[in-house]
Design brief:
CATH superfamily of chain B: PRC-barrel domain
Structural class of chain B: alpha+beta
CATH architecture of chain B: Roll
Number of helices of chain A: 16
CATH class of chain A: Mainly Alpha
Largest sheet of chain B: 4 strands, mixed
Shape of chain B: elongated
Largest sheet of chain A: none
Number of strands of chain A: 0
Largest interface: A-B, 35 and 34 residues
Helix content of chain B: 10-25%
Order of helices and strands of chain A: HHHHHHHHHHHHHHHH
Number of strands of chain B: 7
Strand content of chain A: under 5%
CATH architecture of chain A: Orthogonal Bundle
Structural class of chain A: mainly alpha
Shape of chain A: globular
Strand order of the largest sheet of chain B: 2-1-7-6
Number of domains of chain B: 1
Order of helices and strands of chain B: HEEEEHEEEH
CATH topology of chain A: Hydantoin permease
CATH topology of chain B: SH3 type barrels
Radius of gyration of chain B: 19 Å
CATH class of chain B: Mainly Beta
Oligomer: heterodimer
């Protein structure tokens, strides 16, 4: 019974934990401009994150080594440092976007200026990291994030033309008025949002935090292959809501209130309440994950003592690094930059950094010294290779597409 | 350049310094991360002069950490006084991590950790307590 409960909890937190500000905004923007014609990218991205999250979790469970230790060890100090610099900066951007997202969601709920909410949100993030146990933190934010299911409910309440939606999703084409460049730019952005590297840093380090062993592998696999796809359905629902309500009116999403507008039209105030709780929980949870990931990556590269299972005094540099990151994020937000804009850039840059993160995971998951009998099977490796090709193509294409399309304008 | 003699046969574990030591995580006797092996220090080999046959092979004297990482990446060499050493005799086991037989808390390589702990983290309320 306890085991069943554990599985259920894991799945629920995976659903709630999958969606962050990057997914919320990118899916709504894409939905409002391209309808459901980019749904296939979410599907490809979700399969990819399942594959690699599961792999990194398995490596952590069997060998006790988290992803960034492996990156340094396999790529050597130079390429490792390059990856650290890239991942760390993207992580910092994402962290900034998530804290800004919490503030924006709280603004919708309270009509108090987001600039006033930002320090409160950042302080709350720090307090949770400083004092709250890992499992409590993960379960509470994940479960509250589940209220985002209201997006899926809203799709039904809006009584859309199902045939048309299915047509957009099944036979994707670039809608009239949009260029092919913009279409592919947003394809890369959606892919980056689904496969953001911090997810595997967090997932593998979380496995070490919760002291997984070989016998936890099957449960983690179940969490991943059920939870993430259900999270992906949430993502698609967000896009669908935007496609149904915003696209016909020609509204382009630039604010968080536009992201939740379809839900409000479908379900009124009650739905708004749900969606606000969901957005706050999802962005707050992601702010925790990105802050921790910045500590994890630094500590694992340099070999510092890390982990929330230790007292802060026993992982001093790990904690000070996270405090500094939060302060930098606060500084960026204090300039008055639009968090939504930061989000849009962070997901595209994520796509650029993907290969440096996922290649070492694939290599080590095949290393017998680490994995013993739990090395990758042939099927996993075949999928891994296919995804490496996709990841490299997306990474190479990201920056040129950004320049050519003027960031999707 | 004369052919090198084949490596003598050993009956213990054979380690490749590059593969098994460099950039591996170092844990102390209590499983607490200490550092990553940033570089290795070998016993002196005369530099730039012919080595007479029969000279014993150099041995690893210490694991290095600290500023040496910067010079390993960008080139150059830090002065010997700035190297943080963990003497090889403290190494207890080499596997997917390097395990020490001593506590990391007293080593030179962890002085930054101790400084941050004693001067900042320990002063913030809750810093010395387990998370709840």
């Amino acid at each position: 019974m306890k085991r069943l409960l554990g599985v259920a909890l894991g799945i629920l937190t995976a659903i709630g934990g999958f969606v962050d500000i990057g997914d919320l905004v990118t899916n709504a923007v894409v939905g409002s401009r391209f309808g459901l014609s980019l749904v296939w990218v979410v599907v490809v991205g979700v399969i990819g994150i399942c594959l690699f999250a599961q792999m990194s979790g398995r490596v952590a469970a069997v060998s006790g080594r988290a992803t960034f230790e492996i990156i340094r060890e396999r790529l050597g100090p130079r390429a490792g440092l390059a990856n650290l610099a890239a991942s760390f900066l993207i992580n910092l951007l994402t962290l900034t976007a998530e804290v800004g997202g919490v503030a924006l969601a709280l603004q919708l709920a309270s009509s108090v200026e987001p600039t006033l909410w930002v320090p409160v949100a950042a302080f709350a993030v720090w307090l949770v990291i400083w004092r709250v146990k890992f499992s409590v933190m993960e379960n509470v934010t994940g479960l509250l994030g589940l209220t985002l299911i209201v997006f899926a409910v809203a799709v039904f309440l809006l009584h859309p033309d199902w045939a048309e939606l299915a047509g957009q999703a099944m036979a994707p084409s670039v809608p009239a008025g949009e260029t092919g460049g913009a279409y592919w730019y947003y394809a890369v952005a959606l892919f980056g949002a689904a496969m953001t590297p911090y997810e595997v840093f967090f997932f593998s380090s979380g496995a070490v935090e919760e002291k997984w062993t070989r016998k936890d592998i099957s449960q983690s696999r179940l969490n991943v292959v059920i939870g993430f796809p259900l999270g992906g359905i949430l993502s698609i629902s967000i896009a669908a809501c935007a496609a149904i309500v915003l696209m016909p009116r020609g509204i382009e999403v630039t604010t968080l209130s536009q992201v939740v507008q379809p839900v409000v039209e479908a379900g009124g105030k009650l739905a708004l309440a749900f969606v606000l709780v969901g957005v706050v929980a999802a962005t707050f949870g992601a702010a925790l994950e990105t802050t921790l990931s910045s500590g994890y990556t630094l500590a694992q590269f340099f070999g510092w003592s890390w982990g929330k299972f230790r007292r802060p005094a026993q992982a001093a540099r790990f904690h000070i690094a996270m405090i500094v990151c939060l302060l930098i994020g606060l500084g960026i937000l204090a300039t008055g930059v639009d968090p939504i804009l930061v989000t849009e850039y962070s997901v595209v840059f994520s796509a650029v950094a993907l290969p440096l993160t996922y290649i070492p995971i694939l290599i080590v998951a095949n290393d017998k010294q680490y994995m013993g009998r739990d090395v990758n099977g042939r099927l996993t490796n075949a999928f891994g290779m296919i995804y490496l090709v996709i990841i490299v193509v997306a990474a190479v294409a990201a920056i040129p597409l950004m320049i050519v399309t003027g960031a999707g304008a | 350049m004369t052919e090198l003699d084949p490596a003598p046969e050993y009956h213990g574990q054979v380690l490749d310094a590059e593969l098994n030591l460099l950039d591996r995580q170092v844990l102390d006797v209590d499983e607490v991360p200490v550092t990553v092996v940033d570089d290795l220090e070998l016993s002196d080999v005369p530099w730039g002069e012919p080595i007479p046959p029969g000279t014993p092979a150099p041995v690893i004297t210490a694991l290095l950490s600290g500023p040496v990482l910067g010079t390993r990446i960008f080139g150059g060499r830090p002065p010997a006084s700035r190297l943080h050493r963990i003497a090889w005799r403290h190494v207890a086991d080499v596997g997917i991590v390097v395990r020490l037989g001593i506590r990391g808390g007293e080593l030179d390589v962890t002085w930054v950790e101790r400084w941050v702990r004693d001067h900042i983290i320990a002063h913030i309320p809750g810093g010395r307590h387990d998370p709840e």
